[in-house]
């Protein structure tokens, strides 16, 4: 694919890089550290999850979307949306992930330093589910590259080519369809060009 793109002068459309506001400074929650250190692969499911929040522009205003991904097979295991930026959105996604997977004690949930992920509600919810909370460094997108890459793929493959959704309902529907296609059919280079579902199905450690 890369060779053919170079041959025909085709380049992927990318959005403008925007600064990420409202990141909590290191002095907030100094007891929560980066447990991942950019080690993005794990041998079994439900040992390392990644999460983050993004915005989708619609004709009715912003739609906020939170997603949780399993590092094992890059599968989206839960997601939640809201019309406003509130800590509750990420909590819904986290609770859904816990109910769906029922991870063993010690599973790491990694995020950036967004204020939602340093709030007491987030920390208490994660710890009550026996998860280990991990956060990356401030203003370092590479620490959470797995989920950042997923959001980039979602927007570059679904949002930008087709245009912004007219309504928040349309945005939710398009996100639902993209997640289903991604989990079941999207080939992933880090999985040997298999989809997340196929990769898990072919493994004896399938959740």
List the defining traits of the structure above:
alpha/beta; five-stranded mixed β-sheet
Question: What do you see in this structure?
Answer:
By secondary structure, the protein is of the alpha/beta class. The chain has one domain (42-201): Nucleotidyltransferase, domain 5, CATH 3.30.420. Helix content is 34%, strand content 18%. It contains six helices and five strands, in the order αβββαβαβααα. It has helices at 2-7, 88-101, 120-128, 145-162, 168-185, 196-201, and strands at 48-58, 61-70, 75-82, 108-111, 132-135. The chain has a five-stranded mixed β-sheet with strand order 3-2-1-4-5, with helices on both faces. Helix 2 runs parallel beside helix 3 (120-128). The radius of gyration is 17 Å and the shape is globular. The two termini are 32 Å apart. The mean pLDDT is 89.
């Amino acid at each position: 694919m890369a060779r053919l793109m170079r041959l025909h002068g085709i380049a992927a459309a990318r959005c403008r890089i925007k600064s990420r506001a409202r990141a909590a400074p290191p002095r907030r929650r100094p007891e929560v550290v980066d447990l991942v250190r950019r080690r993005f692969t794990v041998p079994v499911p439900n040992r390392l999850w990644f999460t983050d929040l993004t915005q989708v522009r619609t004709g009715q205003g912003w739609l906020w979307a939170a997603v949780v991904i399993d590092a094992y097979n890059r599968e989206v295991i839960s997601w939640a949306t809201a019309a406003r930026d509130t800590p509750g959105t990420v909590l819904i996604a986290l609770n859904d992930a816990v109910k769906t997977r029922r991870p063993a004690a010690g599973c790491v949930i990694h995020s950036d330093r967004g204020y939602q992920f340093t709030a007491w509600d987030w920390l208490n919810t994660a710890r009550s589910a026996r998860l280990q909370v991990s956060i990356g460094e401030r203003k370092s997108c590479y620490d959470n590259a797995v989920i950042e890459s997923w959001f980039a793929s979602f927007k570059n493959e679904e949002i930008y080519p087709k245009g912004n959704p007219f309504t928040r309902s349309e945005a939710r529907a398009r996100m639902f369809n993209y997640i289903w296609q991604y989990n079941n059919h999207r080939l992933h280079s880090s999985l040997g060009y298999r989809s997340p579902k196929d990769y898990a199905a072919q493994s004896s450690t399938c959740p």
